[in-house]
Amino acid sequence: xxxxxxxxxxxxxxxxxxxxxxxxxxxxxxxxxxxxxxxxxxxxxxxxxxxxxxxxxxxxxxxxxxxxxxxxxxxxxxxxxxxxxxxxxxxxxxxxxxxxxxxxxxxxxxxxxxxxxxxxxxxxxxxxxxxxxxxxxxxxxxxxxxxxxxxxxxxxxxxxxxxxxxxxxxxxxxxxxxxxxxxxxxxxxxxxxxxxxxxxxxxxxxxxxxxxxxxxxxxxxxxxxxxxxxxxxxxxxxxxxxxxxxxxxxxxxxxxxxxxxxxxxxxxxxxxxxxxxxxxxxxxxxxxxxxxxxxxxxxxxxxxxxxxxxxxxxxxxxxxxxxxxxxxxxxxxxxxxxxxxxxxxxxxxxxxxxxxxxxxxxxxxxxxxxxxxxxxxxxxxxxx
Length: 384
Description:
Layout: E1 6-7, H1 17-23, H2 33-50, E2 55-59, H3 63-72, E3 80-85, H4 88-99, E4 103-108, H5 117-126, E5 132-138, E6 140-141, E7 146-147, H6 150-160, E8 164-168, H7 180-183, E9 187-191, E10 203-207, H8 209-215, H9 227-235, H10 245-261, H11 263-283, E11 299-302, H12 309-320, E12 322-323, E13 325-326, E14 336-339, H13 346-362, H14 372-383
Parallel strand pairs: 1-12, 3-4, 3-5, 5-8, 8-9
Antiparallel strand pairs: 2-10, 6-7, 9-10, 11-14, 13-14
């Protein structure tokens, strides 16, 4: 059926009607008082979501642009940084660091496994001369569905005293608790097409006072991504460059929705969606790629042994118009990923699990009791 696509990928995520209607509005001038009033409310609500009193700024970029900005504004060529790499996006930040001539040291874990906080502790404790200037961590690794232990890693960074912690929160912000001020996080980057529930196009960067001190002496080249420009403009409820006006209209709408749901409501809903999805997959006797103790409330990855993952995705799309995400790099065709963040409800999970059961049966996989997947997911919803 035309226009019936159901996005169950970790970004872009479904967009609520209020945001779609906001996107359809006639644009207004971005140097008007009307736009400034909207931007002021958006900025205040972004601070609420980040749980911070620090600066939160909007960039016209993807999440990658947000995290890149979060790295280059506070570092200088040759600076030593630690980068956690246990998936596609951790590797990306290491590559960004190398592109800017930083001295990158990777702390690695196998894809599908969480980063070991003790590995960071050992490197940081051994750095008696305080040469490590930053630690870059992907909180929710989108490529695998692992939620890394940001709180513990950050505690080791704080014990170091000198290093900044720079966080890729692209699929955790708006799905998982990321209390910036309470934890003392220095830089938090995210993207609009995830928990914010609007299309791709906006990057969001939050910056602590400690990071701003580092900004004063940082020497990496920057212009469009110079966060100092954004800080000055945001303080005046404006932007340094032309923004995507209607995307900010949409963000204005979804942030209001999020405030109405409340932080506890948002985090509890995503936890419930994750638990139901994982229960449904187990009910179908399909192997989960990530263990329960480090699964992300944003994404669940499935490794269908003996069945090509891309076949599952293709039939889901063809027969049910449900989009699942594939594996990346060496995991291509080995896993598929179910996104359950943003504007996703209990009904969406039940629909996806029931459709997946039909698809698996069509592919000749019958190692489950009919209806067991939906029943398992429904039990989670009934108990929460």
